[in-house]
Design a protein that fits this description.
single chain; about 400 residues; alpha+beta; Immunoglobulin-like; paralog of FGE (formylglycine-generating enzyme); four-stranded antiparallel β-sheet; 8 helices
Length: about 400
């Protein structure tokens, strides 16, 4: 649900069912809203911290319950940052998408881009949710004395992921929409500085490439691979992730399947699942109900070995096993300084473009990025922003991969 630009929220309850005319998804959204979509907003004036709210009542919408946003407060914590706190509950226990809208007087509203915390997709019910808005140039300096209205919008309906079946290796792939995100971390070695990256849409394997799929590749292509005994020591079934693969092996598989390895930026963008500035694919905090990492407990019963793919809940994009289980090879060369000079759009480290790297991958000898951590690693090393690397000819018991394909190859 999108607000009509320039509409100042009044402190009374009324039906509000507006959509942007230019939104290409308007017809689809209207159908969803008429049948199931429910949301609630509360507003406040920043710097005066005067709060007033509304609950949006939709027409008869079946059995779904309305998310409720309450106790919204805001304070300017420094010249360039505002902290917004709120409580949210969805009576049905649904995950929600939380958005912020900013209004100044009768000017059209805008959605701030530089947000951290409990905002974006995959937000669960809870108290004292926090969002930090790093204002930057989104408000001109000479306007900072003006009152602004912030709307916190909680929507309990997500468009279901677009999933296709890739015939060559019989995998499910999920569409990741084009967009921008804040990549990196100020707290992880070699992951600084945090920088904005914009990516085109792409499809990514929903699960890590399995032993069974890699066997299919070897049998159909004649690719030389003879480490099956070592693989079987750690993964007893074909439904486990393929391990003991070099970067060259992963590239050969991807070429055979008509795909490629993800860039490091694509991998992190997909792993975040639509969440902004969170440590893990589902949010902040981790336990063994979420992932297979060092130790056991809860849903994690695999001591120092990979779990079958898809053994833990997916992230907001419907992707599995992006924290722990096995490391995943990426396309990029590992460069400790790359984040300081990264292109803003579709970055790829290593000096070769996509076409060149696929034509020349057997000649590559620089270290390649590994992401996601593994069952060997403790919780701080399975974060979405943690970077690791290895020589492209390195094989190990916790190294696997998944593939991507550009949306243009799917639609053309």
């Amino acid at each position: 649900m999108t607000h009509l630009p320039g509409q100042r929220v009044m402190s009374k309850t009324f039906v509000k069912n507006y959509l942007r005319a230019e939104d290409p998804r308007t017809s689809n959204l209207r159908n969803r809203i008429d049948s199931t979509c429910l949301w609630t907003v509360l507003t406040l004036i920043l710097w005066g911290v005067v709060a007033y709210g509304q609950q949006v009542d939709e027409q008869q919408l079946g059995q779904n319950s309305t998310p409720i946003v309450t106790n919204v407060t805001a304070q300017q914590v420094n010249l360039d940052q505002v902290q917004i706190d709120y409580d949210v509950i969805d009576p049905d226990g649904d995950q929600m998408t939380v958005k912020l809208w900013i209004f100044e007087g009768n000017q059209p509203g805008f959605q701030p881009k530089r947000l951290e915390g409990d905002v974006g997709r995959g937000i669960v019910s809870g108290q004292r949710k926090q969002v930090f808005w790093n204002i930057g140039n989104e408000i001109p300096l000479h306007h900072l004395g003006t009152d602004y209205v912030v709307e916190v919008v909680a929507d309990d309906q997500h468009l279901p992921p677009t999933i296709l079946q890739w015939d060559k290796d019989t995998t499910e792939m999920v569409r990741i929409p084009a967009g921008s995100f804040e990549m990196g971390s100020d707290n992880i070695t070699y992951a600084t500085p945090i920088h904005t990256v914009t990516l085109d849409a792409f499809y990514i394997d929903r699960r890590e490439v399995t032993v069974g799929q890699f066997k299919q590749f070897v049998e159909q292509s004649g690719y030389p691979y003879d480490l099956w005994e070592q693989v079987a020591e750690y993964v007893p079934t074909d439904h486990c992730p393929m391990i003991f693969v070099t970067w060259y092996d992963a590239m050969a598989y991807a070429n055979w399947a008509g795909k490629r390895l993800p860039t490091e930026a694509e991998w992190e963008y997909a792993a975040r699942g639509g969440l902004a500035r969170r440590d893990y694919p589902w949010g902040n905090g981790i336990n063994h109900q979420h992932a297979n990492y060092n130790g056991i407990g809860g849903a994690d019963q695999w001591e120092l070995k990979p779990a079958p793919v898809g053994s833990f809940p997916p992230n907001g994009y419907g992707l599995y096993d992006l924290a722990g289980n096995v490391f995943e090879w990426c396309l990029d060369a590992f460069d400790t300084e790359f984040y300081k000079q990264s292109p803003r759009r579709n970055p790829l480290a290593g000096g070769l473009n996509l076409e060149e790297i696929h034509q020349q991958f057997s000649q590559v000898d620089s270290g390649r990025v590994l992401r996601g951590g593994s069952y060997h690693y403790t919780l701080e090393y399975v974060r979405v922003d943690y970077r690791d690397y290895a020589s492209p000819d390195h094989r190990f018991d916790a190294g696997g991969f998944r593939c991507v394909v550009e949306e243009t190859k799917v639609t053309n």
